[in-house]
Design a protein that fits this description.
Helix 21 links the parallel strand 15 and strand 16. By secondary structure, this protein is α/β, with parallel strands linked by helices. Helix 8 runs antiparallel to helix 17, helix 17 packs across helix 22 and helix 19 runs parallel beside helix 20. The radius of gyration is 26 Å and the shape is globular. Among the domains are: 203 residues, Rossmann fold; 114 residues, Immunoglobulins (Immunoglobulin-like, Sandwich). The chain is 32% helix and 17% strand. The structure holds 1-deoxynojirimycin (NOJ). The site of 1-deoxynojirimycin (NOJ) has 8 residues, from loops.
């Protein structure tokens, strides 16, 4: 007895120190409480019912992909009643989710509840900034909280499962979906992936305000060749293991319950039929026990890729490869039963997929109460409640990046000034919602104009100048719809002449980035550059507020405009957030999660490049790795962002100079607020592994901390490096730590040059 007690208290200590964290995954993995129930249920299921669980149908209203021929409501209702549907997507609101859940629970033989999936990408109805903007905050608590708020709203609307976070690392701003991710860096991307997963899933998936998260798109979608959407991917093992996969592994370790595969191929195998990715890595090496959903009809696409000759072969390949659920593709529901009956697909494969899907349904508590997410009173109380608006405003302010403030035009005086507010996005209440806004009302954002009007101590004159984008919806292929009408430029110039300060809001419309919106030109679209230059001629005191879902090539602006603010698309509260930053009620601290190129020819451009054999121009001749027609630096580097105050880094120190692989390297630095405002700074730690058996990047982010300092205050910041930061993956996917010399850099962006070094024995 005594031994048992001692053992129990030992376990408790272990649990208190390591458990209880937020790691639902460990909880789920060690938790066998559902397994017997799942076995019992599977034993009762016909093969048709099993395959039904693997079938995900789009709802009857919005489509977020090309609608297939089979996609009619009659078939769907018919299949629902037969128990041939495991989940639905794009069903909005409790009334509808309840109606469908009722069919699943009350009209089918076994009454297995449905999952309701939805693209809760940056909020449900109340929208946060687009994900790349949130990532610019480098504020993991805020990002986690933003996902928490989104999950609370979505779950109140009947949603049990989000298709987020997108954690595709990308180095190519031509790709429209960079707006949906964490940027270019694998370390930052991993931390953000973890924060978002925990935010969506909360402490316990069975809580009514949590939803299952989905790590997507597995894998390498962000490396679509030339930034062209849905394109082939051709990357090395080195990039796959060290850059692409770590954020997915981080999501898995944080307990993400589902993964989505992708539209791209990798080594010639489409992601949906890719056994190496799904079986060997995800379900094998990483021991993931949730389920994998295909992307929208992506299993069928194996046919168009030329890998499968027909739907039957596509279903065979995808099920064998580990895709557990078919999203709106009709291939599993139409082909899998026959494949099993013909003994081409083993029933064990089907059972495994079904077990994974049922497991998530059990964890969500749907078997205890299938209507727990269908509570009209809760829906009414939670959706659009004030605290949601406050939360997205907070996140929006944290996402703003100050790129330039040379003449201290910012912060603006709150009174006594004549301000001209100019630009097609200045009074736009739609574009700030971005392109993922399925559950929010069009035109529901606060525009910058509205936000600035709330500060009414100044004379504010608004002129649109030019039109930007006159397309209407997120889903229609409307390329480059820009007006040629220049009439408004004159009015804008007149307003600028009569102003002390000009605030210009220019950039991309929310529908110009996102899925299916790759671009080859990253200059200001349409007539905006002409407008900017015309205004500059009469009044150079310009604060340029850029709205965009990606880095833009704003060379002329950087050269000429004294003040530039990266304002992304900040969601519902955009105008209030921008106004608070411009008027100094909030001191910006965002840092770029993605490099800004000087021109499209530099892409892919990223901070952690390889030195190459000819990385510097030692002999001042032509024989080195460079472009000869442009400076070889980016326009703005990764990690860059200013504040209204200034910071000084000093006394970079390590606690030792030689370490063994099991020791922790403690890096300390003194950070002083040397300016006139209280402010926040993201202290960034980079390393360079000087010599490796595989070529190593010139710098790698391996730690950061968001630090708040009063003016004049100094703090000593300590960051730590352990094995996991010092090692890397071999080309066979093995994580190793090699002895040798390391350099350490600390500073406010990726060009940090305050440097020290150590040796790893
Ligand atoms: C296709 C997108 O690639 C994916 O990210 C999204 O979740 C699905 N459509 C569902 O809307």
């Amino acid at each position: 007895m005594k031994t048992i007690n001692t053992l129990l208290s030992f376990c408790l200590i272990i649990f208190l120190s390591f458990g209880c964290s937020n790691n639902q995954n460990q909880e789920n993995k060690n938790d066998n409480m559902y397994e017997q129930k799942i076995d019992a249920l599977i034993a009762k299921m016909t093969i048709e019912e099993k395959v039904g669980q693997m079938n995900l149908y789009n709802g009857f209203w919005d489509a977020t992909g090309p609608v297939p021929e089979e996609g009619n409501a009659k078939t769907k209702y018919d299949h629902l009643r037969k128990g041939w549907v495991g989940a639905m997507l794009n069903v909005k609101g409790v009334k509808k989710t309840r109606e469908l859940q009722k069919i699943a629970v009350e009209e089918t033989r076994l009454g297995i509840p449905l999952l309701f999936g939805f693209d809760v990408i940056h909020g449900f109805k109340t929208l946060s900034p687009i994900p790349i903007a949130e990532s610019a905050s480098w504020d993991l608590e805020a990002i986690k909280n933003s996902a928490r708020v989104a999950a609370t709203e979505a779950s109140a609307a009947g949603i049990t499962w989000t298709f987020a976070p997108m954690i595709d690392i990308s180095r190519d701003p031509r790709w429209g979906r960079v707006m949906e991710g964490g940027g270019e860096d694998t370390y930052l991307g991993s931390k953000i992936a973890e924060a978002r997963v925990i935010g969506f899933q909360g402490d316990h998936l069975s809580d009514v305000n949590t939803i299952a998260a989905c790590a997507k798109h597995f894998a390498a979608y962000g490396f679509s060749e030339a930034g062209k959407e849905y394109n082939t991917v051709d990357i090395s093992n080195n990039t796959l293991y060290n850059t692409v996969l770590p954020p997915f592994k981080a999501a898995e370790e944080a307990g993400v319950r589902t993964f989505m595969n992708a539209f791209n191929d990798l080594n010639g195998i489409p992601a949906s039929t890719n056994e190496f990715l799904q079986r060997d890595i995800l379900k094998g090496k990483w021991d993931f026990n949730g389920f994998v959903v295909s992307d929208w009809a992506s299993i069928n696409e194996a046919i168009f890729w030329g890998q499968a000759k027909d739907k039957k072969e596509a279903a065979y390949l995808a099920s064998k490869a580990g895709s557990d659920m078919d999203m709106e593709g009709y291939v599993y529901i139409n082909e899998l039963v026959n494949l099993v009956n013909e003994r081409k697909v083993k029933e064990a494969i089907i059972d495994d997929a079904v077990r994974r899907i049922l497991r998530v349904k059990f964890e969500l508590g749907l078997f205890d109460n299938p209507y727990k997410y269908c509570d009209e009173a809760r829906e009414k109380a939670i959706i659009g409640q004030k605290s949601n608006y406050d939360a997205v405003l907070d996140m929006a302010k944290k996402s703003v990046v100050l790129l330039k403030n040379d003449t201290q035009l910012l912060p603006l005086a709150k009174s006594g000034k004549r301000i001209a507010l100019i630009g097609p996005l200045a009074d736009d209440d739609n574009s700030p919602l971005g392109s993922w806004r399925l559950a929010s009302d069009d035109h529901s954002a606060v525009s910058v104009y509205e936000g600035m009007k709330a500060y009414n101590g100044n004379k504010l004159k608004y002129e649109k100048g030019v039109d930007l984008y006159i397309g209407k919806t997120a889903f229609v292929n409307e390329v480059n719809i820009n007006t040629t009408n220049k009439k408004g430029i004159k009015e804008a110039v007149r307003a600028a002449k009569n102003a002390d300060v000009v605030v210009m809001v220019l950039g991309e419309h929310g529908f110009q980035s996102g899925e299916g919106r790759s671009r080859t030109n990253l200059d200001l679209p349409g007539l905006q550059q002409e407008l900017l230059e015309a205004v500059y001629k009469v009044n150079p005191n310009i604060v340029l507020v850029l709205n965009a879902g990606r880095p833009l090539t704003i060379n002329w602006a950087k050269e000429n405009i004294p003040t530039i603010v990266m304002g992304w698309q900040l969601g519902t509260q955009t105008g209030n957030a921008i106004a608070q930053v411009l008027y100094g009620d909030y001191n910006p601290s965002g840092k770029l999660p993605m490099t800004f190129p000087r021109n499209v020819g530099q892409i892919p451009i990223y901070y952690n490049y390889k030195n190459t054999g000819r990385g510097s121009n030692r002999k001042n001749n032509v024989f080195w790795s460079h472009y000869s027609d442009v400076e070889n630096t980016p326009l703005y580097p990764f990690g860059y962002g200013l504040s209204y105050t200034s910071f000084e880094y000093k006394n970079l120190k390590l606690d030792k100079s030689v370490y063994t692989a099991n020791e922790t390297v403690k890096v300390s630095v003194d950070l002083k607020n040397t300016g006139n405002y209280d402010g926040k700074e993201v202290v960034q730690l980079y390393i360079r592994d000087k010599v490796g058996s595989i070529t190593r990047p010139i710098k790698e982010l391996k730690g950061f901390e968001l630090v708040e300092l009063k003016k004049g205050e100094t703090k000593t910041i300590t960051l730590k490096l352990t094995k996991s930061e010092l090692g890397f993956y071999t080309n066979h996917g093995k994580f190793i730590v090699e002895p040798g010399d390391f350099e350490v850099f600390v500073g406010g962006d990726s060009t940090a040059d305050l440097k020290t070094s150590f040796e790893l024995k």
